[in-house]
Write a structure and sequence with these properties.
4-stranded antiparallel beta sheet; globular; binds protoporphyrin IX containing FE
């Protein structure tokens, strides 16, 4: 390894050492660390900023400055700092890259805008108000003055609430999202789905971290709004409040095997394609934490965000299954990226979550 690389890894280790030394048993502090913010009920407003940094020590310095602030954030602010594949090259650390971290490949149907994809770093700051999220994000970025904003989006989660151990919000198509996420009350704990486990073949420093996928998905809201509600619900495979089309409660799972031809829940509906429950198709393993964005009638939609410890069992496998499904008629993916959120809290941050 180059001297620069060793110094950069030392930088990561130093962030961890500081976190362990300071955190003690204070759950509020621990909650503020970068990765745990991923597991907290999301605050209603977010600023996502993808940053490009100069190569060399400056790449390391920019990450360390933002990681330090993310680790120490509090007062209702949730923050994550994530690394793109390109950061590892710039920092001279290509050999330390998480095994599946590449720049996001285009998927069928994507029309990616160069100004809305990738980034060496991704800083996510969420808070109770849009003003607070914006103010924190911009003031933090001043500590990394060499970082240039590659793209930035502001998002919001209306009707944000918790139900049955899941965080819910309403998207701009009028549907509640979050019911199909892993629950903090039952099933595999979200942390197990999100965090890289020891012995998984990932570099040692990546253990406890998470792959983050972002997709900037534009909605054709006028086209959607012109559809009768029953058509929208067939496209989605759930009613707007989350109830399944066969009447199963939002928190349950319908018996798809009793509906093999999709008479009740169409086979190509979004939720059934995403998680068909058929033998050989394992349930998706990811925690979705999306936000709406609205910049005007022709630029609005979803900042789809998913955290997972395995990209194939999480986002990528599901995205391939969704290709060409009816929801695509109303949506267009124009941006996003693949990133890795290191666990900079370095304690056992999950005990206290919910
Ligand atoms: C294109 C815009 C999208 C919209 C409007 C949308 C909307 C929804 C809605 C309303 C639900 C049902 C409630 C819930 O479980 O959260 C849902 C479920 C789900 N979506 Fe999406 N989604 C979109 C994109 C995606 C993408 C890109 C993926 C991943 C590749 C994805 C994966 C899932 C999964 C895994 C479920 C849960 C299925 C289950 O287990 O029941 N969605 N989505």
């Amino acid at each position: 390894m180059t001297r620069r690389g060793a110094m950069a890894l030392g930088g990561l280790a130093a962030v961890c050492a500081m976190a362990s030394a300071d955190s003690g048993d204070d759950p509020v502090f621990t909650a503020a660390g970068s990765l745990p913010a991923v597991l907290l009920p999301p605050a209603p407003h977010i600023v996502m900023a993808a940053l490009d940094v100069p190569p060399g020590q400056e790449a390391v310095r920019a990450f360390a400055a933002l990681a330090h602030l993310a680790r120490d954030s509090g007062g209702g602010t949730q923050a994550t700092i994530a690394l793109g594949a390109s950061w590892f090259d710039k920092a001279g650390l290509a050999g330390a890259r998480p095994t599946a971290l590449t720049s996001m490949p285009p998927f069928p149907g994507d029309v990616l805008d160069d100004g809305l994809v990738h980034g060496d770093l991704l800083l996510q700051v969420s808070a109770a108000t849009a003003e607070r999220a914006h103010q924190v994000s911009t003031s933090w970025r001043r500590t990394a003055p060499s970082a240039r904003v590659r793209w930035e989006k502001r998002g919001f989660r209306p009707d944000s609430r918790l139900s049955d151990g899941r965080a819910l919000a309403r998207n701009l198509f009028g549907f509640v999202e979050g019911h199909g996420n892993p629950s903090f009350r039952s099933g595999p704990p979200p942390a197990e789905v999100v965090r890289v486990a020891p012995g998984s073949g990932e570099p040692r420093w990546a253990v406890g971290g998470s792959y983050q996928v972002v997709r900037v998905i534009r909605f054709a809201t006028r086209l959607w709004d012109a559809e009768p509600v029953h058509v929208q619900e067939e496209v989605m495979g759930r009613r707007r409040d989350g109830t399944w089309l066969d009447g199963t409660a939002p928190t349950g799972r319908p018996a798809f095997d009793a509906d093999p031809d999709g008479k009740l829940t169409p086979l190509d509906s979004h939720t059934r394609r995403a998680n068909p429950g058929t033998p050989g198709v394992p349930a998706p393993r990811m925690l979705r934490r999306g936000y709406n964005y609205h910049e005007g009638p022709d630029s609005q939609g979803m900042l789809f965000v998913a955290f997972q410890n395995d990209l194939e069992r999480g986002f990528a496998g599901v995205q391939r299954r969704l290709a060409g499904h009816p929801l695509d008629r109303y949506t267009l993916t124009v941006g996003g990226g693949y990133y890795f959120v290191p666990d900079i809290s370095c304690g056992d941050p999950f005990e206290f979550v919910i």
